[in-house]
Design a protein that fits this description.
This protein is mainly α. It has two domains: about 375 residues, no CATH class; about 60 residues, no CATH class. It is about 65% helix and about 5% strand. The chain is built from 19 helices and five strands. It has a three-stranded antiparallel sheet, covered by helices on one side. Helix 7 runs antiparallel to helix 15. The longest helix is centred in the middle third of the chain and has 33 residues. The termini are far apart. The relative contact order is 0.18.
Length: about 500
Amino acid sequence: MSSTKFIQDKLKKYIPALIWLPNYTREFFMKDSIAGVTLAAYAIPVSLAYATLAGLPPQYGVYGYLLGGLFYAFFGTGLQLAIGPTSAISMLIGVSLADMAGGDVQRWVDLASLSAMVFAIISVMAYILRLSSIINFISETVLVGFKAGAAVTIGLTQLPKLFGVSGGGESFFNKLFELIKQIPDTKIVVLLFGVAAIVLLVSGNKFFPGKPVAIVVVIISILAISFTSLSTMGFKTVGVIPSGLPEFRFPDLSSSSLMDDMMNIIPLAFACFLLAYIESVSAAKSLAQKNDYEIDAGQELLALGVANLATSLGQGYPVSGGLSQSAVNDKAGAKTPLSLVIASITIGICLLFLTGLLKNLPMVILAAIVLVAIRGLIDIKEMKRMYRVNRFDFVIAMTALLAVIVFGILKGVLIAALFSLVLIIRAVSSPHIAFLGRIPGTNRYTGLQRHPDNELIPGVFIFRVHASLFYFNVAYIYRVVRQKIRNRNTL
C-alpha cells in the first residue's frame, strides 16, 4: 500500500465526511438544503427554550446548534443525526450550576462552557481507550425510568411559566408545594395562551410530522404580543437578544477557584457525557437502520468530543444527538450531514440579522415548547409492558424514576448508572449453572433441568457455568455445585 493511500485511509477513518463527499450530487444538495433550513427553523425556538432550562440567556442554546452540528458533520457517522442541546442535559446544567454560579450570569456561562470542555475531554479519552461499549452498561429498563423522572422534573420547572406565576423552591417537592400555593395567583390570559400554544404544537406535530411547527407558533405569538393589547396582560418576554456570532474563547475562570470548579464540574460533565452518548448512539442507530447503513459507535465518541469542544469555545454548553431533532432532519429529506452545515449557516444568518424579531417572544411559549418536547421521554406503553411481562424490570424502572425526582437529575443519572452496574455484577455474581447428563444413545450432553431423562455417568459429575469465572462469583458456584454433589441422589 502506498503512503498516499495509507494517509487517505487514515483520514477517512477520523473524518468520515471524506467518504461521502466525493460521491456528493446536486440532488443530495437540494434535499440537504431543504432539510437544513427546516432543521434551523425547528432548532431556533427549541434551543431558546432549552437555554432557559439551563439557566442561561436564550442565545447560548442557539450556539449549541450553530457549532455542535457544524463540527459533527465532518466527524460523525450518523448521516441524519442532528446535534444540539437536549431537555435532560439542559436541566442537568441548570440545576447543577445554580449554586456554583451564585447568580452571576457570566460565571454561569463560563461554568457551562467548562462543562462542555470537560465533556469533550472525557469523550475523546473514551475514544482513545475504545470504550464505546459503555452504552451496554446502562440497561434500557433503567433508561426508561430515568427519562420519565427527568420529564416529570423538567415539566415541574415549566409549569410556573405556564400559569404566569414566579414559582420557587429547591427540591422537587418544594417546587411542587410553592406552585400549589401560587395557583390562586394564576394569570388566566397567560395560561390560556400557553394551553393554546400546546394544542397547536401537539396538533401540528401530529398532522405535519417533521415540519418546524414550533417556528410558526413562535411567529404567531410574537405578532400577537407586538400588535395587540396582550402585552399589557402580564406576559414576560425574552427581551433583547444580542445579535452576532459567538465569540471564540476559553471559559474565563479565576485561578483561585479553578480546582474547586473542576472538582464540581467533572461529575456533571460525566453525567452529561453518559446521557449524550447513549441518546446519540440510540438515535443514530435507529435512523441508520431506517436508511440502510451502519454507524461506528466508536467514531461517535470522537465526533461528540469535537462537537462539544467547539461548542465550549463558542460559549455554549454540552450538546448531544437527539431523536426529535434528528427525526425532523430525516423527515425533511436529509441525505448527508451537509444538512447540519446548511442549518448552521441559516442559524448564523438569523443571529446576525434577525434576533431583534424575537424581543417580544413570550416566555410561556418557550415553556409550552419544552412541555411538548418532553412528552417523548415518558414511555407509558413500555412501562405497561414491563409491568405485565417482568415485574422486576418495572421495579427497576420505577426506582430510577424516583431517584431522579427525589435526588435531582445529576444524582439521579449517576444513581441510574450505578444501579445498572450493580445489576450487571448481580447477574455475573450468581450465574446460571447447568448440570448435564448424556442424551440416551449418543455422546451429547444437555441440561438435566430441561431433559430429566438424560443419563448420569457413574462417578462423574458434569456441569456448565453460563458466565466467566471471577473472584466474586467463585464462592457462589462452589456452594451450588457442592450442594448438588451432596444431594446427588435427587438428580
